[in-house]
Amino acid sequence: MSSLRIKFYFVAIITIALLLHYAFPKVLAQQAETDSPTDSNNSNNDTECGGGTISNSEYDFGLHLGALFIILVTSSFGAFIPVLSKRYTALQIPSIAFKVAKNFGTGVILATAFIHMLPSAFANLTNPCLPSLWNTYPAFAGAIAMGSALMIFFIEYLTIKVTEEYEEKFLSEANSPDNATHNNSNINHEVAVDIGEREEKKLESHKSHLPHNHRHMLILDNRTRTVGLVVLEAGICFHSVIIGMTLSVTTGSDFISLLCALIFHQMFEGLGLGSRIAELSFPRESLRPWLMSLAYGITTPFGIAIGLATRYSYNPESQTALIVQGVLDAISAGILLYASMVELLAADFIIDSRIRKSKASDQIFAFSLLILGAVIMALIGRWA
């Protein structure tokens, strides 16, 4: 039941983004047509602001196609390695590597929102080539980011509220005198399945010491973290499509610089996301961790493919492109700011007491990785 609700809310996020992608720019394009005859700043948009499309002579299709596969491999490698390591003993890596990827990845995702998305949204939505509507209110990007963060907060709040009510109802039925014996075995089975076979033996050894409400809190916590991770990945995927399209229409020396930056960007971000996916408890036969890793791995290549298909007609400097990129970057920034602050930083360092109760050296190590990830991603922002 709750897994269906999680899927529903994820679809709702995608639907809202698509509506903004297609409907919002058209409304503003109409506004541009209305403003352009009387607005001297926009009278020469087509000649001065359009930038022009790419000519066949200056575009190296083979190089850009190769970049698609390079990004596909690096993105998938980063996202799949932690999941593969968790599932298969032959590929196991030390637990310290998961901690490194997790904390380093948190810094990467935080910097992605602040350095890569939010400034890009402001730059696109305050471009002087846009209609006067955008320049009379230069805080559009911030307002959209704030709105998307609040939207995600309400979606997550409602999801957790519904899940808690469902769990409480199920728990009350399980604790009824008539069904106690029968439901106890069902609850124990559900916990074992929900936490996964890897942890099943450990759970069984302590099962007799766990009250029903404690066992259900384990299930609820895993579902709550799953919702948070879906939110995080949605924000990353929106942005990934845009950067993929940007790479596909970039030429010359700028293309090489951007490609190198994106290789590191996708690798680090993928490791951070993959370590979070691997940390969740899924049944061994579940496809969810694989599908979540796959979604990240193919999103940027998907954006590159769109750019390759439209390379001669797509103009990244056109009004519609600037608005679409700016709006999607602002939405992604809001989602990632919320997810990185609440789902990652607060969850790992404030709500979860394990780091606070660990040795001082372990705490310094965790914070150092967090800062290192943010700093490296901020430096990559020079090119991507």
TrEMBL record:
<feature type="transmembrane region" description="Helical">
    <location>
        <begin position="227"/>
        <end position="249"/>
    </location>
</feature>
<feature type="transmembrane region" description="Helical">
    <location>
        <begin position="61"/>
        <end position="84"/>
    </location>
</feature>
<dbReference type="InterPro" id="IPR004698">
    <property type="entry name" value="Zn/Fe_permease_fun/pln"/>
</dbReference>
<keyword id="KW-0406">Ion transport</keyword>
<feature type="transmembrane region" description="Helical">
    <location>
        <begin position="255"/>
        <end position="278"/>
    </location>
</feature>
<protein>
    <submittedName>
        <fullName>4085_t:CDS:1</fullName>
    </submittedName>
</protein>
<feature type="signal peptide">
    <location>
        <begin position="1"/>
        <end position="29"/>
    </location>
</feature>
<dbReference type="Pfam" id="PF02535">
    <property type="entry name" value="Zip"/>
</dbReference>
<dbReference type="InterPro" id="IPR003689">
    <property type="entry name" value="ZIP"/>
</dbReference>
<feature type="transmembrane region" description="Helical">
    <location>
        <begin position="137"/>
        <end position="160"/>
    </location>
</feature>
<feature type="transmembrane region" description="Helical">
    <location>
        <begin position="330"/>
        <end position="351"/>
    </location>
</feature>
<dbReference type="GO" id="GO:0005385">
    <property type="term" value="F:zinc ion transmembrane transporter activity"/>
</dbReference>
<keyword id="KW-0813">Transport</keyword>
<feature type="transmembrane region" description="Helical">
    <location>
        <begin position="290"/>
        <end position="310"/>
    </location>
</feature>
<keyword id="KW-0732">Signal</keyword>
<dbReference type="GO" id="GO:0005886">
    <property type="term" value="C:plasma membrane"/>
</dbReference>
<comment type="similarity">
    <text>Belongs to the ZIP transporter (TC 2.A.5) family.</text>
</comment>
<keyword id="KW-0472">Membrane</keyword>
<keyword id="KW-0812">Transmembrane</keyword>
<keyword id="KW-1133">Transmembrane helix</keyword>
<feature type="transmembrane region" description="Helical">
    <location>
        <begin position="363"/>
        <end position="383"/>
    </location>
</feature>
<feature type="transmembrane region" description="Helical">
    <location>
        <begin position="104"/>
        <end position="125"/>
    </location>
</feature>
